[in-house]
From TrEMBL:
It comes from Clostridium sartagoforme. Transmembrane segments: none annotated. One of its GO terms (cellular component) is cytosol. Belongs to the glycosyl hydrolase 1 family. Pfam families: Glyco_hydro_1. Coiled coil: none annotated. InterPro entries: GH (IPR017853), GH_1_N_CS (IPR033132), Glyco_hydro_1 (IPR001360). This is Glycoside hydrolase family 1 protein. It comes from the Bacteria.
Amino acid sequence: MSLPKNFLWGGATAANQFEGGYREGGKGLSTADVMTGGTHTTPRRITPKLEEGTYYPSHEAIDFYHNYKEDIRLFAEMGFNVFRMSINWTRIFPNGDELEPNEEGLKFYDDVFAELKKYNIEPLVTISHYEMPFGLVEKYNGWASREVIDCYVRYCDTIFNRYKDVVKYWLTFNEINCLTNKFGSFMAGGILLEDGGELVLNANDDNDSSKQIRFQALHHQFIASAKAVKLGHEINSDFKIGCMIAYMCTYPYTCNPEDVFLAQQRDNLNNFLCSDVQVRGAYPGFAKRYFKENNIEIKMEENDEEILKEGCVDFYTFSYYMSNCTTADKEVEKTAGNIMGGAKNPYLKASDWGWQIDPKGLRWTLNNIYNRYQIPMMVVENGLGAVDKVEDGSIKDDYRISYLRDHIIEMKEAVEDGVELIGYTPWGCIDLVSASTGEMKKRYGFIYVDKDNDGNGDLSRSKKDSFYWYKKVIESNGEILE
């Protein structure tokens, strides 16, 4: 039960959650830059105008912008041969609709890629990861408008040509299926809803009026992604361009056929709708029925179906943190989750944030996806958000090691099952800002960053016990997991 010899080991980050330098180098204001801090119990707010005295976590984040050399050196010390990162769209096009890019922003990523190459680390670049130019929100209400497609394709054309010799692996949109939930309206779609723009954390709220605008925005992202795939292959035929799905693993709570069917419907709508379009190049039948029954009318232009067919992705990537249950019984106890909550599974333990820990679910998920598409796959987010304590200058995070070990074991089992898995990049390989809550307290990294929820700290980096453990895992290609 071994992984391929050329397996890609590394870690994952997002520019808006760790880069900082939000007004440096000509960077414009992004959607992430207008989201306030929050906590597990206090939702983040969206402020269309920045408020004096209000804390915005992305403005400094952990300041990779000024510390990228140290951070990449630490990644190299762990043995990374791949690093998942994103490009801040507003570093390249500050308002989003400019015709010419910002050279200073392009130069920053030249330097980052050069540093990665120095250590033979392959960049895996997410083109749009929960940030878009706020100028496009103000002008078009984000992805609700078709005009944004051309802005995105212009951005892709710029970075594809600039980095065509240093980046091979690209992802068009992070967790594109977020827009199937109201939670993703602003964070993933840049859409300010009529409710005043408060970020909605109740991911199960299907009784809303935003479905039409969300699914239309999602269609615009599908077209943008397909155009980017075709363009990228024309610029460099060696490019590998993938999709990225927040996989919401959902079990039926009981063997009641109602629960079983409900779980299948959730799997279809929340997971497979987006990947069917991006991998197969067309909307599935169940999506068309859902649109009809929910009075959603997707406005398409004449060539849209052809564009989707011509822009299928080369590989499939996804995030996996947990599983949930679903049931028709409204009295069953509920629990939290990544994007979408669900019924509490009595057989599983949960994290401090209520996310149920289910390593076996990763094997099930890998098989479920691969049996459907049979294209190369990567797990590009996986990890445990936890409160880490510094004691005697060290961080003993055995709980994180245990979580990751159990998931890697199941990942290897899936490879033995026949799944074509080519890489693994655990989320937040260095501590960064939580997207959902805006916290630093919720830590995922192998590397500790001295900063708290209020922005206090000297940003110094230190190695957790998991740093040394993951180094051994990579050195042994997943054979040494103790």
